[in-house]
Amino acid sequence: MERPLVTIVIVSWNSAGVLEACLRSINGALGHCRDQIIVVDNASGDGSLQIANRLRSEITDLRVIAAGDNLGFARANNLAFEQARGDYLLLLNPDTVLKPLAISTLVDCAGEHGAAIVGARHYHLDGRPQPSVRGLPTVPALLLLLAKIHHVLPRLPTFTRYFAADFDYSATQPAPQVAGSCFLITRKAFQQLGPMDGHFHVWFEEVDWCKRAHDQGLPVWYCAKAGVNHHGGQSFGQIRSVRRQWIFNRSLVRYLRKHHGILAAGCAVALFPLSLLLAGVSQILHPGQRR
Questions:
Q1: pTM (two decimals)
Q2: Is it the case that residue 111 has pLDDT exceeding 90?
Q3: Among 39, 78, 88, 192, which is least packed by CB within 10 angstroms?
């Protein structure tokens, strides 16, 4: 039997400091799988594109696409999907380093449980577990997030459900949504769901995919045995807080409008000024922090 082919898609924007380590970790994670690697560079200005092109001579079947502009996460992935040959598609952030056999473990998990989408177990660089599962967003959760209430009342039941505070990361199990930083989807599920929604520039695009999967009865799973180290926020940590909040708000409203209707989206828009004001205050008081 031919070994399964996994197309690994890495969307890179100013990722020069982390991209090479990510790419070099893939070979040890493959196990019984074959790979096709596609790096989409979103008009980086830090030499990321040159690093990816240099590694083409060392890494088998690495393809590099220069987008020419910052397409955002969803559209850049969709650009790569047009060239993807894999039985599985793996979305992988450039600030990740795969643990040994992580890819083959994700593939095995999908086969064993009949999963359409599988997420990996994430770790901080110091080895601490990193949350990578959340509940599907509800209207109250997203509106309270915009008002930054989670900083004041983090144990509010609305937030504990959304942030999956009681999720057992030691057990492989179904999940509402899994992190897009290491996100496997089967070819069959991709054909059923279609590509990512390109209206999301960044944030909520993988949440939207998980929501659509659940709506169509396609299982989403978390795999405890497939590990990945994740820096977190390497690209968007470069954007100042207010600008980042604006991008987040736009994607949030898109998600609410698509899945919860125009009234919910309108309520979110009404909270824009407050969320931007609070982001600005945070930017002044905590200039080095991502809020």
A1: 0.94
A2: yes
A3: 192
